[in-house]
Amino acid sequence: MSHEPSLRRRAVEGSVYLSARRLLGMALSLAGMLLITRMVGPENYGLFSAVTGLYTYLSWLSQLGVRTYLVRSPQDAPITLFHQAFWLLLFWSVALTAVALLGLVAAGAIWIRTAGFVPVAFTVCVGLPLAAAAVVPQAWLERGLNYKRIAALDVSAQLGSYAVGIPLAQLGYGVWALVAAFWASLLMSVGGAFWLAHYRPRWYWDPTERRTMLRYSLAQATADWLYLTKNLAPALILLPLGGKEAAGYFALANRLLEMLNFAQVSIRRVVLPVFARVQSEPEKLLRALYLSSLGQILALGMTCLGFVLLAWYLLPPLFGAQWDIPTAIVALAILASEQLLTAIFGTQAQALFAVRQPQVVARAAAIFVPHFYLATALAVWFAPPHAAAIAYALAYYWAHLPNNIFLHYGVKRFIGAPRYGVSILWAVAFGIALFAPIADYLPLLALGVFALPASRRAFHELLAELRTARKS
Fold first, then answer.
1. pLDDT score at 4
2. Helices and strands, counts by H and E, the chain
3. Half-sphere exposure of 302 (CA within 13 A, CB side)
4. How many domains does the chain have?
5. Which of 96, 102, 266, 279 is the most buried (most CB within 10 A)?
6. How many Cα atoms within 13 Å fall on the side-chain side of residue 134?
7. Measuring CA to CA, which residue among 358, 100, 129 is closest to residue 225?
8. Is residue 116 within 8 Å of residue 247, measured between CB atoms?
9. 134: domain range?
10. How many CB atoms lie within 10 A of CB 66?
11. What are the residue ranges in the chain where pLDDT is below 50?
12. Cβ distance 245 to 46 under 8 Å?
């Protein structure tokens, strides 16, 4: 197809820009996290992270799945489509925020009786309408594959966050230093998105177009809404049952993983437009699935393994005596092991969206949610207090396995037999190796799978694809 070379090249360039941003962001985050978390301690960090997990889920609800609809819109789509999306999201997010604030009062009184939870949650969640309004200019940038601007926006928001949060943490404001940093990042993200996209909303309201938008967007978003209820679990499960400290250790592990998977996230961010454009060619789509998962596994596996081996010795003195860093690193190893499998099966979910089979992903999520909440609640309930974060991470890993199997059968039915090659073998090998520091480094022997002939062939295939993309 005539668009393929250009599309391939732009996808690779987008991955490079976003990976570079993630690499810079990882350095900034490590420095910023080291300063802020060391000063605020695990309890304050746990409370704030549980609240932001709640905010993240509500933010997804407030967006109604419209971002994907806008990104996939034709290049000649009228600007009125974006105006319609802007007003729809603004009105809906304001209503959702009002309901959420009432729900927070009830939750704080009945279940989450943790000191400081309600005021912190209130202050964070009132930002939902701003985040929802920014979806439109962000989608405009993403649709145009303007990844340089997206990367610049992300870095600017991160710098603003630390510029506000670190001084306040030094002054002893505790959790409120984190809240202030959150607001600085949000304001810079929203303002920067409108400025970089040169988007200015104009009044437009068409019932027919709105119904079309919602019909598509809600079908796509339902699966995400179901799956992302996992973000509520730190506030609903870990915080009330395990306490602020356990929530803090899990949050630190999760934050470290978010920083370390910079290349994986970058690849996943650009593959949706690629999948959408080859959705009518199953063989090309299945090959793209396979190569995408290989690239993600290598990027995440090598980054996390190198970090874990160093962090085991370097982080304890840096974070100070109030942090039990080995607990956070073990939780990180468990979460990274699960994310290595997500590199395979999460990509399959994106492909199912591309071929307009969102109901398969929704059903997989419907299997995941009750399994996840039951597993994490039981794990935290029965675990000793000092091991609650690790128990929660183990339950998190376990709960994803049925979801992955369901996605496999969905791809097999609607696209074709998935090509796995060495992807699962690589994911498992890296997952085992991550536990080297707690087992006399014997798990590193699992990396021997990369010397297999099948692994060498996979390396060559991946490198050949990258060379082709660079020449296109």
1. 46
2. 19, 0
3. 9
4. 1
5. 266
6. 21
7. 358
8. no
9. 4-471
10. 27
11. 1-5, 7
12. yes
